[in-house]
């Protein structure tokens, strides 16, 4: 048992002992011990370690609920005292609250344990790899690595523990003309060869950025969207696209798909692949998660249903978090080998990344954004030069529907780079996509 889990179970025991008749609780736990290194010109500019932990206590009684987050330290007795104080404050707050009509608690005594302790690379190995492969390149980026822990327990006997090691190196290579190639290498098992290959690919793209930029007129162009570009599109879908609450209230970009009024290409199958991912197999609301088939061969299937949405809209909960967004989104691969992408593209756009995406027409699933990083014009399977930053505006029903020609056999596992308040456990597993037409507007 890890030290983190021991601390969590110590607080859990103290809370159970302090509970009064008629009270129920849920206790969520988050912790990390992360090493951060910031690079500039391929040299270390800032390094540090973040070690933090907190619990989210929810007290329930007589149809009312209230919750409070508590920051933890290294003193177990002080942490228990903070927990008792929070419990007392919640007891005072509950009688002042109205009844919660959609309060729904999982009263099953389930248990889930996951300990993914693959050895992380020594920092010296990472730094040596960057120095050897980047050389005199202007590499700018952030490396983050270490264990992330999530825990959950309830007064009904539920208990979940998740601890996983991971690393994430998010970096860009800048050309002297100010253009940049954005890249990422992340996972749970560091490979010097795989990192070198990823950096080599970015270095090759950097050389193309030295050519004269090509300006295109607005219009529809044949295009290849690399996995990182697909990740931006998939990320937009996570903004309520698969949410039961958003679908029930008409606020989902996939409303037409789930109502049966539209469909995507038969090549498209999205799933929530929790098993084997970095995300815990239980939600922040205290329900076991399972893998979900969200879209199968272009047709809508399951949706993400939290306990609250289940109560409000008379649905069956399936372990979704309260915000009903995928935590491990996966798009099934296709049959296009990555080595043949330029040949199959022929003449068109090679798009490494998309940037600043937003919805221009939510009901139509129409998105807009910029090409920005390492977008190239290709003729007869050969890169001719970088394309000046342009804005695209197109519908998902076109990009992953009528205009989708192929998906790559190889997929990229992309871990979330978010460190807002804590490192994220979110991920996506995505292929690249070849489309017959992508609309550029300016």
Automatic annotation (TrEMBL):
Question: Which InterPro entries does UniProt cross-reference here?
Answer: Metalloprtase-TldD/E_C, TldD/PmbA_sf
SUPFAM superfamilies (alphabetical): Putative modulator of DNA gyrase, PmbA/TldD
Q: Which residues form the Metalloprotease TldD/E C-terminal domain?
A: 218-440
Pfam families xrefs:
PmbA_TldD_3rd
User: What start and end residues bound the annotated signal peptide?
Assistant: none
Protein name, entry field: TldD/PmbA family protein
**Source organism of this protein record:** Pseudomonas farsensis
């Amino acid at each position: 048992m890890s030290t983190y889990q021991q601390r969590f179970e110590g607080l859990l025991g103290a809370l159970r002992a302090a509970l009064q008749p008629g009270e129920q609780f849920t206790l969520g736990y988050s912790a990390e011990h992360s090493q951060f290194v910031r690079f500039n010109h391929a040299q270390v500019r800032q390094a540090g370690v973040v070690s933090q932990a907190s619990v989210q206590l929810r007290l329930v009684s007589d149809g009312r609920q209230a919750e409070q987050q508590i920051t933890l330290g290294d003193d177990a007795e002080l942490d228990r005292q903070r927990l008792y104080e929070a419990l007392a404050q919640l007891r005072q707050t509950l009688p002042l609250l109205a009844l919660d009509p959609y309060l729904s608690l999982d009263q099953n005594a389930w248990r889930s344990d996951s300990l993914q302790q693959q050895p992380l690379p020594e920092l010296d190995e990472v730094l040596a790899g960057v120095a050897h492969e980047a050389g005199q390149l202007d590499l700018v980026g952030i490396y983050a690595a270490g264990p992330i822990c999530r825990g959950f327990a309830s007064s009904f006997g539920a208990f979940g523990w998740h601890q996983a090691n991971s690393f994430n190196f998010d970096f860009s290579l800048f050309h002297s003309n100010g253009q940049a190639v954005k890249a990422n290498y992340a996972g749970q098992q560091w490979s010097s060869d795989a990192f070198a290959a990823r950096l080599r690919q970015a270095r090759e793209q950097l050389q193309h950025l030295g050519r004269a930029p090509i300006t295109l007129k607005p219009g529809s162009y044949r295009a290849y969207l690399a996995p990182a570009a697909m990740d931006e599109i998939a990320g937009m879908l996570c903004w309520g696209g698969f949410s039961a609450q958003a679908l029930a209230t008409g606020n989902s970009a996939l409303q037409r798909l789930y109502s049966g009024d539209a469909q995507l290409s038969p090549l498209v199958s999205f799933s929530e692949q929790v098993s084997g991912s970095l995300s815990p197999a239980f939600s922040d609301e205290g329900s076991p998660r399972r893998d979900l088939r969200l879209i199968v061969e272009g047709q809508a299937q399951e949706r993400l249903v939290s306990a609250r949405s289940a109560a409000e809209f008379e649905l069956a909960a399936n372990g979704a978090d309260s915000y009903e967004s995928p935590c491990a989104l996966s798009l099934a691969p296709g049959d296009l080998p990555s080595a043949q992408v330029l040949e199959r593209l022929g003449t068109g756009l090679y798009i490494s990344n998309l940037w600043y995406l937003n919805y221009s027409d939510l009901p139509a699933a129409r998105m807009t954004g910029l090409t920005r990083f390492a977008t190239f014009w290709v003729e007869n399977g050969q890169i001719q030069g970088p394309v000046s930053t342009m804005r695209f505006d197109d519908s998902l029903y076109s990009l992953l529907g009528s205009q989708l020609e192929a998906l790559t056999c190889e997929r990229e596992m992309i871990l979330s780079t978010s460190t807002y308040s804590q490192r994220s456990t979110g991920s996506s597993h995505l292929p690249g996509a070849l489309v017959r037409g992508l609309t550029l507007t300016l």
